[in-house]
Amino acid sequence: MKKSALAISLLLLAGCGGSGGPGSSEPPIPPLAVENLSHPDSQHWLPLTGSFASALATTGAAQLLRIEQNGQLIQPVQGRYTLNGAVLEVDGLNYRVTPLSNSAVSFRFTLQQGGRQGSAMVQLAAPLSDPLASEQWHLRNNGQTSYAQSDSFRRALIELLVQDPDEPMSRSEATSLVNQLLNDYRSLLAPGFDVDLLPLFAAGIFGQGSISVVVDSGLQLAHEDLAANILTGRSLNLVDGSNDPTPVLTPSQPNAGDHGTSVAGIIAAEGWNNLGGRGVAPKSQLLAINLLADDYAAGLDDEWLVHGLDNTIISTDDNISAFNRSYGVTLPVMQGYSLLEEELHRFSVEKLRSGKGSLNVKSAGNEFEGYFYEGDFCQHNGAYELGLTCYNANMESAQQTPYYTIVAAMNPNGHKSSYSSAGANLVLTAPAGEDGDLLPAIVTADLMSCLYGYSGDAAATDFDNAIGEGAFAGFYPFDSGNHADNRECNYTARFNGTSSAAPMVSGVAALLLEAEPALTARELQHLLISTAKRVHPEDPVIRLSLPNGSFEAHSGWVENAAGYAFNNHYGFGLVQAGAAFQRLQQGNWRLPAKTYSPWHGTGLYGDGTPANLVIPDHSASGVSTTLTMPEQLVIETVQLKLTVRNPELLEFGRITAHGSTQTSAGSDLAVVLTSPSGTRSVLLASRQALLLPALDEDWAAQDGYILKDSVLRSNAFYGETSTGNWTVQLFDLAADSFAVADTEFDFDWIENNTVPSRLDGAALRIIGHSKE
């Protein structure tokens, strides 16, 4: 900080004949001499400290009278002044100022000392920054558009409506419609919904020493904004065995982008290098394993490796904060639970990092509105109309184990992203956005060069061929290669999906483990759960009407008996790095050792005899069974194992007068678990795309079974006590038959089941810790 001299005003004496006589006046009080203060070296979002007292020529008691900027008086709120381009915090005469823009900032301060007043300026030079950071709403959301809702998008959309070959609009009609549409979507840009990073940055925590493993399609090791944070020689290419997973770019797939490179940019793009954007943990380290190369042709050996069991790549002593898993397997079936898969997941969480464990951070899935296997099934079974998820996040086997941190996706207004799969197994929510046209997506790294990637010529060609010449540049100007902020196409503003949400959590994990390396993976997840922010508090309850009552298919936010609020759309809420850091500083974050209850069951899982309980068709009555848990544990997560059969559910359906026909029994099924404390969790809501028989752990179809030794996970009971009677309820909630089209399995007709489904067995397992 530097001082510059402020000229002292001349002292003027008024009156004549000296002082004290008739007609004389007191001399005016000279102004207080105050010097300008300057900060020539500043960094974007990083606080600078100073003292207004250092601007005074003399020592002695003084006080701050006011702060002004551009001639306007700035009023403080609890000692905090919100300036144009910065935030100023004042404690007495000491201040801390944080630059929030990439431009120089100045403001005027006025002091009083000994009855005299004086003013001067504090001047901050333009900070060292990253040019795209101010558009990364996930890091600091101030309501920015992040290159969405651009003028070129407005013009392109108007032109598209005017030139529509089927129903063209007049230019005035199209302009009016588009302007209204953009006004509506601007209202969805709400400040404050971000991952709350600045408190950690202010404390000098940037993820140093933490390593994130990007298990994905690859990673461009030479990317200008990633290279500095990549561990040399530590990545692995599963296709050719080398340590370079940089994707091989071919003319046949020029616009594919590299998913892993964009994921890595969210976690650990280098900060304050005047390039691109900024990672959540901008000084953390990266290594990558390209599991998804060759269309996810991963075998057991690869799964073994990507969970850290092969110490030729990952040592148990490596400071792995998280494995980021922005991928998934989507099928219209309940996938089989694998005990081997469970043990692989467990190794990462309990054995790595010298026994403290690493998080497995997993994207929840992007199938709320459907995928391609089911065709238009979820348009006709009621899922769309009711607002229920087409694919439940619990349908994927990897997401049923206790060792994955499942992450949902959120828009800039704190509401669920349209595609984000719902389920009782969700843990956290993080920003991801939409497509980057009407609503922002995520700004992150892309393959370098306009020849390849999500941005540039190849992406434009495909889009223009589908929509019309010049459409890509109009809809997505930042990615077009013509935008001043991205002329070399090294970045994209269109990355989205729960694939974007998961690396936010991985980055936060890297930050918190720098702050407290002694945290176990469980304790880290507990901190994130305990400090998550409840978003979309008005998320509505969804009830289904039935002939004999109603069924609550989605409960919105439910606060359990331990005080934790949970929602099948959001888990425990939006990850908050700053709040977790504050909780960490308060201490008392240790958890007792983890304890596993045995499975307690009935029917097949009790005495081995099928329970054969009828689930009445299209009824709010359902069928229930009680499971008693003798163990007294504080719950961390709950697993429910079920076998439910219906003889009409066959892998290839059957032929009827309507053509190839499948039963609706899987889609109609709902499952509810209620704890001894009365907390109710919907594990299946009905209307999900369970089109095929359940798979076993070897992925073989089990004809006649909706669920066969299938495991569903719920986090809604977190913190409650396990002891007592748990109630399992199963329902069949529809009676519709309807035509379908475009299913991958060539079904023509969905027919309501003519025989009732039956529950043959139910069992419960609690994972938690002893009650202190």
Q: What report would you give on this structure?
A:
By secondary structure, this protein is an alpha+beta fold. Helices cover 17% and strands 26% of the residues. The chain has 15 helices and 36 strands. The strands form 9 sheets. The chain has a 6-stranded mixed sheet with strand order 1-2-10-9-4-5, with no helix packed on it. A 6-stranded parallel sheet has the order 12-11-13-14-15-16.
Helical percentage: 10-25%
Largest sheet: 6 strands, mixed
Radius of gyration: 30 Å
Structural class, from helix and strand content? alpha+beta
**Widest sheet: strand order?**
1-2-10-9-4-5
Number of DSSP E strands: 36
Number of helices: 15
The pLDDT mean sits at 94
Shape: globular
**Ends apart, CA distance between termini:** 52 Å
Approximately what portion of the residues adopt beta-strand conformation?
25-35%
Spans of at least 5 consecutive residues whose pLDDT stays below 50 are: 1-24
Describe the structure concisely for a colleague:
This protein is 17% helix and 26% strand.
Helix and strand arrangement:
Layout (H helix, E strand, L loop, with lengths): L1 E3 L31 E4 L8 E4 L11 E7 L2 E3 L5 E4 L2 E6 L2 E6 L5 E9 L2 E9 L26 H12 L8 H16 L11 H5 L8 E5 L43 H10 L16 E5 L3 H4 L3 H7 L13 E6 L13 H12 L8 E5 L13 H4 L2 H4 L18 E6 L17 E4 L10 E4 L11 H11 L3 H5 L15 E5 L2 H18 L5 H11 L10 E5 L2 E6 L3 E2 L5 E2 L10 H9 L8 E3 L3 E4 L9 E3 L7 E7 L3 E13 L8 E3 L2 E5 L1 H4 E6 L5 E6 L19 E10 L9 E9 L5 E2 L9 E3 L5 E14 L2
Parallel strand pairs: 2-10, 11-12, 11-13, 13-14, 14-15, 15-16, 29-35
Antiparallel strand pairs: 1-2, 3-8, 4-5, 4-9, 6-7, 7-8, 9-10, 17-18, 19-20, 21-22, 23-36, 24-36, 25-36, 26-33, 27-32, 27-36, 28-29, 30-31, 30-33, 34-35
Helix pairs in contact: 1-2, 4-12, 12-14, 13-14
